[in-house]
Amino acid sequence: MLKHLEREDNLGEIKKGKKVLVDYFATWCMPCKMLSPILEEVAEADKEVTIVKVDIDEFEQEAVMAGIRSVPTLVYYKDGKEAKRVSGVHTKEEILEIINKY
Fold it and tell me: What is the residue range of 10's domain?
């Protein structure tokens, strides 16, 4: 499942899920735009993972609290704990490898 974080969402609660990939992005970021369709493919390939897109300009506080220094940054949470953090554009296969490794 792929969703955009909304104001009424609680990112802390979402991250407690079994398999959660958070994509910190910005609308003005070209690499972020390149990553977006790849994340859609990942969501199709692994129905168990929840992918949450967080706009760092709209949710600045959440990005600061997560220690995000560049976009795009992907943070993978397994059973509520951060398992892996990567920055930049990655292939579908690389992202699925991260998800399946942990």
Answer: 2-101
